[in-house]
Model the fold of this input.
Amino acid sequence: MSILRTEALEKTFNTAGAEAAVTAVRDVNLTVDSGEFVAVIGASGSGKSTLLHLLGGITRPTSGRVLLEGVDLATLDDDALAAVRRRRIGFVFQRYNLLPELSLLENVALPLVLDGVGHVRADAAALEALEAVGMAGRAGHRPDELSGGEQQRGAIARALVTRPAIVLADEPTGALDTVNSARVVELLQRLVAERRQTVILITHDPAVAAAAARVVRMCDGRIESDSTSGAAPR
Amino acid sequence: MRLRTLLVRQWRNRPGRAVAAAASVAVAVGAVVATWAAADASRAGYRRLTETIAGVPSIDITARDGGRFDATLVPRVVDLPGIRAAVPLFYRPTLLRVGESRLREVAVGVDAAALAAAGLLTLESGEPCREDDEVILDATLAKGLGVGVGDEVLFFARRRIARMRITGLATGDSLRWFAEGATVVVDIQALEAMSLSTAEVDRVRIALLADADRARVMAAVAERLPASLVADVPVGRASMADDVLHSANLGLDFVTALTLAMSWFIVGNAMLMNVAERRRGLSLVRLLGATGRQVRRFVVLEAAILGGVGSIVGAALGLAAAGPISAGISQALQTPPAGLAVEPWLVPFAIVMGVFLAVAAAWWPAREATSLDLLEGLAAAPTAAPPSASRNLLVAAAALTVVAAVSEALMYVGVWPPRASVVSGIALLLAFVSLTPFLLIPLVRLLGRLVPSRWQVEGRLAVDQIVRQPIRTALTAGVLVVAVSNGIGLGHAIRDSVEDVLAWYGKMLKADWVLTQAGALSVSREERGADSRRMERIVRELAGVADVEGIGVATGRVAGSVCVVIARDMPDDKPLPLEPVGATIDEVRQALARGEAVAGTVLAQRAGVKAGDEVVVEVSGRATPVKVAALVVDYTSGGASLQLRRDAARKIFGMEAADVLLVTAEPGRAAALREPLEAIAREHSMLLRSFGELRRYIDRIVTGVVGSLWSILGLGFVVGSLGVANTVTMNVLEKKRSLGLLRAVGMRRGQVVRMVVLESIMLGIAGGIIGLVAGLTTALFIQLASQPLLGHPLRFHVRPDIIAVNLLAAVVVTALAAWLPARRAVRLDLLESISAE
Ligand SMILES: Nc1ncnc2c1ncn2[C@@H]1O[C@H](COP(=O)(O)OP(=O)(O)OP(=O)(O)O)[C@@H](O)[C@H]1O
Ligand SMILES: [Mg+2]
Done:
């Protein structure tokens, strides 16, 4: 069963002042089934992050549709979209992941709090998620007291804490060493296996891509190749 | 953890931002409370000033054809609203003997006990006279005579010589209201009996309550009067003071309204910045699934808390500041301090206003932030306003300009009251503020070229910073525009109207001494005419007198409007003491020589008289057609005057007597003339005042009123400076991270500070220039507004000193407000400043 489907997805940025508009994503038709582990690779600037943002309803497409669990995101109003983001999707971004004012634990618990979960339960769930990424020991620290990789792991914990149907992660391992990178990938794979969650992850790391069952390569905003073999094409 | 915790954490993390936002509310609320209290103190002070100088506001009931009248003809009027008391007055020249001195004085008959009870007669010592053989003396006169309470004087009346006991000494100030130069107060029935006239009075003077509308009360009184009596405004200084105070009140309205507008703008600006700067954080919270409503509620909650705390602190500060300011105003007005009387609703109102403004100002950017595309929200602070916003601003500016122009026009033609100009002034100011974003960038680029080549790098970066953040910098400049425009506009308006009044007096009052006819108005015209001619001769022959000009004054009516008919010599060899409007001095002089008259601008407006009209003038029951040759500016009678040459006045109205003698001394002999002139004044029942005294009296009104306006304007200035400082500080605090990055790529500390200060100075100058244009336009509007009030256009002068002070203040305040936080920011550990978000 497909959990996520795009139809002729296109995104063009018209930046004021720039002469030419940038088409970051063009004619993307992608179908992702529930429980899939998809790696998105491609050169810098090829449109990977933009595609991920479109999938998560963070930005609206110029044309085309995104269907999440059969629902066209364009038909949802602001509140419904917020609820989808809160309950169905977990995000890990390339940048600006954590609120600097909050401790790591509070950051991780935030999606639950926003959903009205009581703070005892929210904190417990957050701690569990932090344990999963090996950051429970730093729960009380503020983001600026953590290294880039630690922050990234915190962000992953936050993406997992609501047990979303789909996790969208933009270079979650970009700042991690090989050992920790492998741990994160392993964690994500376990999610897919145990909870039948779907993971779409962007990476530049061939080792991480190799761990994915399906690899989508982007080039100039288009999907260049989409291989479901265990091994990523070179 | 709840959203509220996030709030508290954010404050703790960025205390500067939260404190600055709350401080802006405190400044605004404090400004409202203090300005309001100060304006109240000023209004009360103006009232007391009018009372002490011009007497209690009043209306006179007199016989239509002059002379005394039967007091029983006067109907009851005290039951009409706005009336404090009705006082029958009877004047009688008399001779007073104390020991060997004989004095010609004027006695006034009143019901002294009733007058004292009504607070209209103040005794320095003793008590009111009640019996036939009791008198009250002017305290100064008594001192001169060496007598006091309990002593006896001989009183020569028509019927008998009475030995009378002094029961009290009256202060000059309180006599001024009703005595018209009389120095002896006697019971009215006793005086009438001694004068062989019963139940006759010269006038009934009606004291009005302070807040009464004189015109309305006058109409109500006139309705009850028999045909033989008329109700009028007492002629003279009262109306002059009225006019100055009218325009002062208008000025007060302007200052208050603009200070309010400015404080609103400061709050709006701070809250807008406070929210706009956190777009990214708010977007991230939304990204994690917070609904737009949740985020907005969060922002509103924050605004309400910051606004509430700021409001309470501000109200306390405002109250604390209001005391000294009110005291200062009382001092400027030379009235006894009334103590701080703050309207009970003011503080709650100001606090509610502060919270409301904070919430409203936060709501808008919160809505913007939550309706944004999330990705855009996650990007850095907005780089440019959407084109729709620019369009809206232009439309707003155009609409506001139309509102300003229309309300000004309606007011100018008299459909709206002068106060309407406050609306147009504010609309105009807001129009300029809406235009600020469009004018700012070109201005800053221009200023960037002027940066000395030594600081070119910093200068270029500073221009970049401003251009990159058009919204934030436009907001900062907006506060500057409001503050500078406020200072320049009001400063100009105050100076212009004051100088207008003073210039006129300088022109009119060239004499050294002024002799005025005391209150014995009922002496027959012929008798007085002969007496006055004799006296003029005596004065002219005094050693040391260079020139004497006699001025006749009478009350008249033109087309139902009361006016003062003024007859002056106006000899050909002296400058004409008139300021014609729309005609040359020579034309006016020739017309006057032909026996034509000139009308004061206020009279012209009230009676609908134009230059060249022939009008019917009624004086002492006699109606005569007179040609009005031109209009002139005139303050002494509030502009409601008809002036003509004395020979013409004699022919047309039979005005013989000189009611006022202007005596000019030979150089250096003015002081020596005091004694002989005093003797003559006493002899002829006249009042002698030196030019200096009159000058002082006018000065006291003008400087007092101006002082109070300046102090409130000064308050506005402080508020503006605080607002600007606050905004600039916030602006710099928001840049901590980019400043750190600049240092990380190799910029020296000094360079960073210089760049920040340069940026602020450019903003200060650019905002100052826009504010300058706005301020001058505002000043023009205020002057147009005072035209119907003064009856003539004020000349508009550009005042380099006011402009310089305001622009300098703008630059110094912005530079300081940037320098302090910038210095702190660059002292931070580099790592710390870079990780700041
Ligand atoms: N908000 C924006 N406005 C204008 N252009 C944008 C915007 N966001 C992305 N782009 C452009 O769209 C293209 C795709 O950007 P995107 O961030 O999706 O690339 P990416 O594949 O994620 O690259 P990287 O691997 O470096 O993260 C780039 O050329 C980028 O410059
Ligand atoms: Mg990317």
Summary: The pocket of adenosine-5'-triphosphate (ligand 1) is lined by residues A 13, 15, 22, 24, 42, 44-50, 94 (CB under 6 Å). The longest strand of chain B covers residues 83-98.
